[in-house]
Design brief:
Elements: E1 5-16, E2 19-31, E3 36-40, H1 47-55, E4 63-72, E5 75-76, H2 82-91, E6 93-96, H3 110-125, H4 131-144, H5 150-153, H6 163-176, E7 181-185, H7 193-210, E8 213-217, H8 221-227, E9 230-235, E10 238-244, H9 245-250, H10 255-262, E11 311-312, E12 318-319
Parallel strand pairs: 3-8, 3-9, 6-7, 7-8
Antiparallel strand pairs: 1-2, 1-4, 4-5, 9-10, 10-12, 11-12
The structure holds adenosine-5'-triphosphate (ATP), iron/sulfur cluster (SF4) and magnesium ion.
Adenosine-5'-triphosphate (ATP) is lined by residues 14, 16, 21, 23, 43-49, 59, 62, 98, 283.
Length: 326
């Protein structure tokens, strides 16, 4: 059976004043129906760029899709007409971003936006509710996120809310949709620590109930462990390893993953300097071959000239490293 989402050899860059930033370099990612998949990697490795490419919300220019395909239910999102993408975003895909202003419409109140989502989801399921019942459902969804004073918030515009409140609105939207795929990009960064766990559990329940597929991006390896079954490790715009979350944690194979796991429990914005010396490369002039080679203690001559593909290792593990070439 073909996967729900299948990202193949995706390359994306940004044209800036100084030149061309070659950020995503042949990203591979698949996600099955009802599956929960994690994506981790240090800051700037291209996680958000991947999500925005899937949703087709990258600003073009400066962004440019240099190659690849993004299949959703077998259809290439990159080739869809604008209308089709809008329908997909309304009915099938939902996202929670690090910066929630990205996904909220500044000219409509929170209430208008939430009510539209609830109406769409009712339309899809063939149910009918009165206006009052729809409003009550929106308020309930806001309450579930721990939003203070949800009745009042309904008549506010996104700009009138704090970062944490906006993130709660996005989560309430995600809780109210019928979407089949949730792209959660640091869904709780703007929330107090006390509510983070509660919200993640709530999202988890929802996903379980509706059999929603999830791509979870987070800096917290604890969250990844708890909430995902399969995991991708990303480095400098490429997937370097993929496998069952538990197995990957127990025995990371790629030299970068090994360094990353040493930096547990938290991947901070400072990178992974505890585990691996050096920094993520400059995308204006990234290293040829394996992008990790300047930081890798196992570098071989081939690593400097050829990009390692994802080799199929034992138990369906995939590792992009010439050490695992059979
Ligand atoms: N609009 C843009 N214009 C120019 N460069 C961009 C743009 N958006 C992203 N980039 C660059 O692409 C690279 C990857 O950024 P991205 O936001 O995808 O990283 P990330 O993995 O999500 O990091 P973080 O963990 O900090 O959120 C960075 O070097 C960033 O500066
Ligand atoms: S391909 Fe080479 S440089 Fe890259 S991680 Fe493997 S050994 Fe290190
Ligand atoms: Mg990001």
């Amino acid at each position: 059976m073909s996967p729900l989402l299948d990202v193949r050899d995706l390359s994306v860059g940004f044209k800036i004043f100084e030149g061309y930033l070659s950020v995503l370099n042949g990203v591979e990612l698949t996600l099955g129906e009802g599956e929960r998949v994690g994506l981790v990697g240090e800051t700037g490795c291209g996680k958000t760029t991947t999500v925005k490419s899937i949703l087709r919300v990258l600003p073009m220019p400066p962004a440019r899709i240099a190659g690849g395909e993004i299949f959703y239910r077998g259809k290439d999102i990159l080739k869809m007409k604008r209308r089709e993408v809008q329908t997909l975003r309304r009915m099938e895909l939902t996202a929670i971003f690090q910066d929630p202003l990205m996904s909220l419409n500044p000219v409509f109140t929170v209430g208008t936006q939430l009510r539209d989502i609830v109406k769409d989801s009712l339309g899809a399921s063939g149910k009918k509710l009165t206006k009052k019942q729809i409003t009550a459902r929106c308020i309930e969804a806001l309450k579930e996120t721990g939003m203070p004073d949800p009745e009042r918030i309904m008549s506010n515009y996104p700009i009138q809310l704090s970062g944490g409140m906006r993130q709660r609105v996005c989560i309430a939207e995600a809780l109210s949709t019928t979407a089949q795929l949730l792209l959660a990009d640091e869904p709780t960064t703007n929330l107090d620590v006390t509510i983070q766990d509660q919200i993640l559990r709530k999202l988890d329940e929802l996903v379980e109930e509706k059999n929603t597929s999830v791509l979870m991006i987070t800096h917290s390896l604890g969250v990844v462990m708890d909430l995902t079954q399969r995991l991708y490790i990303m480095y400098a715009g490429t997937m370097v390893e993929e496998g069952q979350t538990e197995e990957l944690f127990a025995s990371p194979l790629h030299p970068y993953s090994q360094g990353l796991m040493k930096s547990v429990p938290k991947l901070t914005g400072e990178g992974v300097s505890d585990g691996i010396p050096g920094r993520i490369p400059n995308y204006l002039d990234p290293p040829a071959g394996c992008r990790f080679h300047p930081r890798c203690e196992h570098t071989m001559p081939i690593c400097q000239t050829e990009k390692p593909p994802l080799f199929n290792v034992e138990n369906g593990r995939h590792v992009a490293c010439f050490l695992y070439r059979s």
